[in-house]
Amino acid sequence: MKGTHTFTEIVPLAPDCDQNSPRMHWSWNSTELDKDTMAMFKDKTTSQVVSVVYIIIFLINVPGNGISLWLLWFRTFPKNPSIIFMINLTLTDLAVGLVLPLQIIYQLRGYDWPYGSRLCSFMTVLFYANMYCSILTMMAISVDRYLGIVRPVQFREMKRRKEYAVIGCLAMWAIVLFALYPLESTDLTYEVKSLNITTCFDVLKKDMLPSVKHWAIFLFTLSGILFLVPFITTVICYVCIIHKLVRTSKSYQKGKALHLAFAVLSVFVICFAPNNILLLAHAVRRLFYNDSLYMAYKLSLSLSCINSCIDPFIYYLASKEFRRKLRLVLRRDISSREGTRAELNRDSLFSARSTNQGPVENEGARVSINLKNESIQ
């Protein structure tokens, strides 16, 4: 969720703003929103469409990731590094799914956030942490598979791989939360008095960071280090894996590797790339050209959240043990249903027999009584 929130509409420079105003820490901030931003808040169509998308994501996310977490945590053994990374990814996806109703309510209320600044900051950070932790986790899974397939000797010589995987997951969270510190330490709500609404991370003041240099570092960290570098690493790993399998493995293994590579890269291209590219483009145009790509960026957020629904399918392709456990659970469920259906059929059959036998016995009794009566006469 990868993440649904925005980098958001940065308050633009108003033509008549007072650059000596105490509210203007960066000399081009204004307390007034521009016409495009106000038009977006007045247009309910976009918020309703996004709400519908989030509702669908919620309905798929929670049961899908709930089942995945149960299988990975309680039914899949041993806990190799790939399984540990998948558990980490499932936890972040499920956390986003559980707070999605808050975002749905916010959208349905017309960009009016009723839950206070702290919960707004928490949800915003959670959504961004989900997206970038998902990106880093997919990179870690691809590296683990690369070592196991392309470098098997070095892979077998590595000791304490489980411990390294756990440390890697903790390191991911530490890096992402450190990168998102500006969002954690800022009040992300903004009161639009003319519309009587309070937005949550849809209006972001430029004075959240002290200078253009700090904004550049922040944007480069998100779009460059946390997205582009993992994306390139993942592509290289899967290209090497496929090249190795093409030369040495059976067609079945090649097919599985191709399907997994296609699924992972599709998540990057469809879910993560539009959001991060538009994030950078929107921020640059807003900071330097007083222009906006916010509507496109807003719509791309729903794509970035779809990854939380796709991840369980990636687990199915990536882990043989996960596939085996899922098939076993489904087989038991089918067997249980068939057993219940057979019991119901037997019960209904016995009921039918007893019902049919009753009148026959009575009929026989009546016949015998009539015969006796006739003999008496």
Q: How does this model look, in words?
A:
This protein has a two-stranded parallel sheet. 35% of the residues are buried. Mean pLDDT is 80; it is low at 1-29, 348-355 and 359-377. It has eleven helices and four strands. The protein has two domains: 9-318, Rhodopsin 7-helix transmembrane proteins (Rhopdopsin 7-helix transmembrane proteins); 320-377. With 377 residues, it is mainly alpha-helical.
Quick summary of this structure?
By secondary structure, the protein is mostly helical.
Describe the main β-sheet briefly: 2 strands, parallel
For this structure, the CATH topology of the largest domain is Rhopdopsin 7-helix transmembrane proteins
- Helix and strand content put the structural class at mainly alpha
Query: How many domains would you count in the coordinates?
Result: 2
Compressed to H and E, one letter per element, the order equals EHHHHHHHEEEHHHH
CATH class identity of the largest domain: Mainly Alpha
Number of helices: 11
Strand order of the largest sheet: 1-4
The averaged pLDDT comes out at: 80
- End-to-end C-alpha gap: 93 Å
Computed CA radius of gyration, to the nearest angstrom = 30 Å
Overall 3D geometry? globular
Quickly give the CATH architecture of the largest domain. Up-down Bundle
CATH superfamily of the largest domain: Rhodopsin 7-helix transmembrane proteins
Question: Uncertain regions: pLDDT < 50 for 5+ in a row?
Answer: 1-29, 348-355, 359-377
**Helical amount among residues, as a percent range?**
over 70%
SSE order and pairing:
Elements: E1 9-10, H1 35-42, H2 44-75, H3 81-108, H4 117-149, H5 152-157, H6 161-179, H7 181-184, E2 189-192, E3 197-200, E4 203-204, H8 212-248, H9 251-289, H10 294-318, H11 320-376
Subcellular location: Cell membrane
Main location: membrane
GO biological process, one term: positive regulation of Rho protein signal transduction
